[in-house]
Design brief:
The protein has helices at 2-24, 27-62, 68-89, 106-135. It is mainly alpha-helical. The protein has two domains: 18-62; 65-135, no CATH class. Helix 3 runs antiparallel to helix 4. The chain crosses the membrane at residues 34-58, 70-90, 110-127. Keywords: Membrane, Transmembrane, Transmembrane helix.
Amino acid sequence: MAARLALGALGVLAGLYGAVRLLQTGTDNVTAALWWVAGGVVVHDGLLAPVVVVLTVLALRVLPAAARPWTAAAAVVVGTVTVTAIPVLGRFGARPDNPTLLPRDYVRNWLIVVALVVVGTALLALVRTARERRVSPGPSTGRPPRGR
């Protein structure tokens, strides 16, 4: 419990430090930060949340129960990586007069990361499912018990 409180206090102090530094930079940066925060709320509530709800409903209808936690984990990782990579995927800040800004093929690299996450998650799910079947086999019919 003490570790959680210490970690929480450290987070609050880091947030306060950031707020003080932001306020010291002037009103233009504060205004830009407020627009950025408001935009994040609008994008989350207006776009991301509805898409996640629809995909979740579709996944519940299509995926077997054993694959759902692994799919959720992969979706969290891919979603986090994608949101973090939006600035480089959109090449925001790239300038034709300075080819050293954003010099890599970020879309290809993002696709590689997504493929590794999907393949890795699928392999982990298969290994886990095979291990569980070895430990607790179903009835003699070879089918899993009802309710699964």
